[in-house]
Design goal:
GO terms for molecular function: UTP:glucose-1-phosphate uridylyltransferase activity. It is an enzyme of class 2 (transferase). Its EC number is 2.7.7.9. It catalyses: alpha-D-glucose 1-phosphate + UTP + H(+) = UDP-alpha-D-glucose + diphosphate. Keywords: Nucleotidyltransferase, Transferase. By secondary structure, this protein is of the alpha/beta class. The chain has one domain: Spore Coat Polysaccharide Biosynthesis Protein SpsA, Chain A (Alpha-Beta Complex). Helix content is 35%, strand content 24%. The protein contains eleven helices and 13 strands. A five-stranded mixed beta barrel has the order 8-11-9-10-12. Strands 2-3 form a two-stranded antiparallel ribbon. A two-stranded antiparallel sheet has the order 7-13. A hairpin with a 2-residue loop joins strand 2 and strand 3. Helix 8 crosses helix 9. The model has no long low-confidence stretch (mean pLDDT 92). The structure holds uridine 5'-triphosphate.
């Protein structure tokens, strides 16, 4: 089995209810951190990891997301005429090669596992990556690249993991660890949002490299926890059937941009990471904090 990973699925068909009313008309993935939509961070990470085919699983109301990847010829020629080469460069950085993007529809929001399964014919019999755009990760090298490097050694399937406090495990898929090799762990099992007795404090976050057999498992799955078809269950089935699943403790900082608090934290972190903004923004944050302290 080849270990080259060239395809990535971006499940973007969720309803994004935590960001209503904004998500009434804007896809969550178009919301911006500083000046780039969440989807652009995900695409850049995938490209850096060598992904060549980008498969979006979309739903009703995601038109703005498809438009985002169109070449903006008029805008490009206006910027060119005006000599705004730096902006032109930024704009061109968002262009995708013809034929590199495919859109497939998830007709009903039946869960992440179902969204991934919708892309089965486009993935075929190859290992593939899954990127959840909600999880924005500051990492060097970028998280998916770290995973692909680790996966070249291990094969099997691989999920990105991070340690969370015991009371937060109930919000994540959690690994049951068979063997801890440091950065990489071998999983014995995986439980989605354990209500009690989590098998470890290693939470799975939104980056995966999956064997094609995971699609076969999704085919078989009926409904797992919460009435949705869970990707976690299909990955756990790999282990049940004797195939390897690994977790990678990636190096970097992950922001849960699917939640309001996480989105705001990411805005601060990415704002402070920008040379042209950091001084003014840091001064502002310092002022806000000192005013808050004075008021307490
Ligand atoms: P979430 O659990 O964050 O759900 O999905 P959501 O609908 O996006 O947001 P809230 O909870 O209503 O605010 C995690 C990821 O899985 C995708 C979402 O688009 C998101 O990237 N997803 C989820 C699907 O593509 N289809 C689904 O049926 C469910």
């Amino acid at each position: 089995m080849s270990r080259k990973v060239t395809k990535a699925i971006f499940p973007v068909a969720g309803l994004g209810t935590r960001f209503l009313p904004a998500t009434k008309s804007i896809p969550k993935e178009i919301m911006t951190l500083v000046d780039r939509p969440l989807i652009q961070y995900a695409i850049d990470e995938a490209r850096a990891a060598g992904i060549e085919e980008f498969i979006f699983v979309t739903s009703r109301g995601k038109g703005a997301l498809e438009d985002y990847f169109d070449h903006a010829h008029e805008l490009e020629s206006n910027l060119k005429k005006a000599g705004k080469n730096d902006l032109l460069e930024i704009l061109r950085g968002t262009n995708m090669d013809s034929g590199a993007i495919a859109y497939i529809r998830q007709h009903k929001a039946l869960g992440l596992g179902h969204a991934v399964w919708c892309a089965r014919r486009l993935v075929g019999d190859e290992p593939f990556a899954v990127i959840l755009t909600d999880d924005v990760i500051l990492g060097e090298p970028p998280c998916l690249q770290q995973m692909i490097e680790a996966y070249q050694e291990t094969g099997g399937s691989m999920v990105a993991t991070m340690e969370v406090s015991p009371e937060r495990t109930k919000s994540y898929g959690v690994l049951d660890v068979a063997e801890d090799m440091g950065a990489i762990v071998r999983a014995r099992g995986m439980v989605e949002k354990p209500k009690e007795n989590p098998p470890s404090n290693l939470a799975v976050i939104g980056r995966y490299i999956l064997a094609p057999t995971v699609m076969t498992n999704l085919n078989k799955l009926k409904q797992g926890s919460g009435g949705e078809i869970q990707l976690t269950d299909a990955i756990a089935d790999e282990i049940e059937e004797g195939r390897d699943v690994f977790g990678l403790r990636f190096r970097g900082q992950r922001f849960d941009c699917g939640s309001k608090a996480g989105f705001l934290q990411a805005t601060v972190a990415f704002g402070l990471a920008r040379d042209e903004l950091k001084d003014e923004f840091a001064d502002y944050l310092a002022d806000v904090l000192s005013m808050r302290r004075a008021a307490e």
